[in-house]
Amino acid sequence: MKSRHFYCKRFFFLLAAAAMFFSAAYAASTHASENIPSIQMSYIFTTHHTPLMVAAALGEELKPSGAYLAPMVPKQKYQLMNAQGSPMAVINLIVPKRV
Q1: Please, what sign has the CA dihedral across residues 70, 29, 43, 13?
Q2: How far apart (Å, rounded) are the C-alpha atoms in residues 63 and 69?
Q3: Distance between CA 99 and CA 87 in Å, rounded?
Q4: DSSP-assigned letter for residue 48
Q5: Which of 15, 28, 35, 46 has a CA between 20 and 30 Å from the CA of residue 81?
Q6: Which letter, b or e, does each residue of 83-92 get, where b requires 16 or more Cβ atoms within 10 Å of its Cβ?
């Protein structure tokens, strides 16, 4: 069984990769504030999605790491923010009714 440390490192790597991707998209756009991408994400409560839930729960506490999730509608809609506080994407979390 993999340790919690492994999953945290994996989560921060994926979060950093997403931040770099959206930062590049943000920098390339001349009207980025009008063209913030929206991501629809469905999840179930498994160990695979724990890093996402931790990022949503910690919110701005992750700001020093370079990217964080700012709640728009708690447990449903978040903005992916960069370290400067600019939005990079809107993430809509969707919980399926049945698995």
Answers
A1: negative
A2: 9
A3: 32
A4: G
A5: 46
A6: eeeebbbebe
- At 59, the amino acid letter reads G
State both tokens at 40: 């629809």
65, two tokens:
């790491």
Residues written for the chain: 99
How buried is 37 (Cβ within 10 angstroms: 0-12 exposed, 13-18 middle, 19+ buried)?
middle
Q: Walk along the chain (99 residues) and give the pLDDT tens digit of each residue.
A: 667 777 777 777 777 777 766 666 655 554 445 688 998 888 777 767 788 888 888 988 988 888 899 999 988 899 999 988 899 999 998 877 765
Tokens of 10: 């994996």
Q: Where are the domains of the chain?
A: 4-94
Tell me what pLDDT residue 80 has.
92
In this structure, are strands 77-82 and 67-73 parallel, antiparallel, or unpaired? antiparallel
